[in-house]
Design brief:
Its EC number is 7.1.1.1. One of its GO terms (cellular component) is plasma membrane. By secondary structure, the protein is an alpha/beta fold. Helices cover 32% and strands 17% of the residues. It has two domains: 2-128 and 320-370, 3-Layer(aba) Sandwich (Rossmann fold); 139-319, NAD(P)-binding Rossmann-like Domain (Rossmann fold, 3-Layer(aba) Sandwich). The strands form four sheets. A seven-stranded mixed β-sheet has the order 11-10-9-12-13-15-14, with helices on one face. A six-stranded parallel β-sheet has the order 3-2-1-4-5-6, sandwiched between helices. It binds nicotinamide-adenine-dinucleotide. Nicotinamide-adenine-dinucleotide is lined by residues 122, 127, 130, 132-133, 136, 173-179, 196-199, 202, 227-229, 232, 257-261, 266, 268.
Length: 377
């Protein structure tokens, strides 16, 4: 069994799908591992460190992929770059299939079995493989680091001989995985933190982190399926807006993380709300990639409006690539462990396993995932 690790092609993507630690564990599973030269550079991992862990360094992608049974990536590779892989080779990564149906069909045509790790079910057994959680957690952390760098003021209260510095006020909108880590990070840095969410259950979690939970009486609970939020009704939305409008004007830092599965990001912060904030305040919009929670967000950009900085970076976890790669690589390793027979040390995919069913996009030349198979037919 040969496993290939490719260097990422997307501009600015510094993460990598395996680390020397996971290479060692893949070797222990019985695999030969080939790492494309320079694959770890963005995450500060040297080729020599992969080699020390037992990998062969391939001078180019072609050599790494040649004869590979599994190809590990962060982002979806071009189908053409997988030429030479073993027939039916598994390609595993964050394949981002929505809106990219043509590319998914191309992967099917290339004869590989592609697995989208972001579709991993959020069940106990698969927690260790949950790339959405591992990366969202880091994005929440990094959002506060970026905010504090742009804020140009101290976050904690400081009582000094030269006088007292008041603590910064931080407001986190959406208290899921990313939001809770943003709350914890802002608290650690000494900010006075408040947060809101539309799921009532989030309130307890926010308060357990020492932050104040803000929610209107009009909005009792908008929990949807599977622990996610549902879209708000027009009345609920109006109530939320009124609450946020009065609160946000007093905030120094706002981190927005609100998402609804399969929908564009909900609009939470209007232009008028931004204009109500003091110059020097900072907003980080973690939902930028899905359209943004803030009316003025420009995905991938940092803008300043009326003195308020709005950060719309789309890959915040990728801005701490070394840690992000470490966790991402472990997520992938845990999934691969379920695909290999421990006795024979050969690939043994159980196509009836719910983890495989949920993540498999393509198989035997066809698009097989129910969300995409029809469009591809
Ligand atoms: P997400 O990224 O889909 O959304 C982020 C947050 O935004 C959520 O908390 C959501 O309630 C909130 N939100 C949506 N609309 C909003 C609005 N209009 N205003 C304010 N907030 C709004 O969520 P997530 O971080 O992936 O987590 C969702 C849930 O899944 C949580 O309950 C989490 O505990 C759970 N979870 C479970 C597992 C597991 O069991 N393995 C793993 C991860 C997360």
């Amino acid at each position: 069994m040969k496993i290939a690790i490719l260097r990422e092609r997307l501009a600015g993507e510094k993460r990598v799908a395996a680390t020397p630690e996971t290479v060692g564990k893949l070797k222990a599973l019985g695999a030969d591992v080939a790492v494309e030269a320079g694959a770890g550079e963005g995450s500060r991992i040297l080729d020599a460190q992969y080699a020390e862990a037992g990998a062969v360094i391939a001078p180019a992608a072609e050599a790494a992929v040649k004869g590979a049974d599994i190809v590990l990536v962060v982002r979806r590779p071009e189908a053409g770059s997988l030429k030479g892989a073993a027939k039916g080779a598994l390609v595993i990564g964050a394949l981002d299939p929505y809106g990219n149906e043509g590319e998914v069909a191309a992967l099917a045509k290339a004869g590989v079995s592609a697995f989208a790790m972001e579709f991993m079910p959020r069940i106990t057994r698969a927690q260790v493989m949950d790339i959405l959680s591992s990366q969202a957690n880091l994005a929440g952390y990094q959002a506060v680091i970026e905010a504090s760098a742009a804020f140009e003021r101290a976050l904690p209260m400081m009582m000094t001989a030269a006088g007292t510095v008041r603590p910064a006020k931080a407001f986190v909108m959406g208290a899921g995985v990313a939001g809770l880590q943003a709350i914890a990070t802002a608290k650690r840095l000494g900010a006075v933190v408040s947060a809101t969410d539309v799921r009532a259950a989030a309130g307890e979690q926010v308060e357990s982190l020492g932050a104040k939970f803000i929610m209107t009486d009009a909005l009792k609970d908008a929990s949807g399926e599977g622990g996610y939020a549902r879209e708000l009704t027009a009345d609920e939305q109006a109530a939320q807006q009124a609450l946020v409008a009065s609160h946000i004007a007093k905030q120094d830092i706002v981190i927005t993380t609100a998402l609804i599965p399969g929908r564009p990001a909900p609009r939470l912060v209007t232009r008028a709300m931004v204009e109500s904030m003091a110059a020097g305040s900072v907003i980080v919009d973690l939902a930028a990639e899905r359209g943004g929670n803030v009316e003025l967000t420009r995905p991938g950009e940092v803008i300043v409006h009326n003195g308020v900085t709005i950060i719309g970076f789309t890959n915040l976890a990728g801005r701490i690539p070394t840690t992000a790669s470490q966790l991402y690589a472990r997520n992938l390793l845990a999934f691969i462990e379920t695909l290999v027979d421990k006795e024979t040390k050969a690939l043994a995919v159980n196509w009836d396993d719910e983890l495989v069913k949920a993540t498999a996009l393509t198989r035997d030349g066809a698009v097989v995932h129910p969300a995409f198979a029809k469009a591809a037919a």
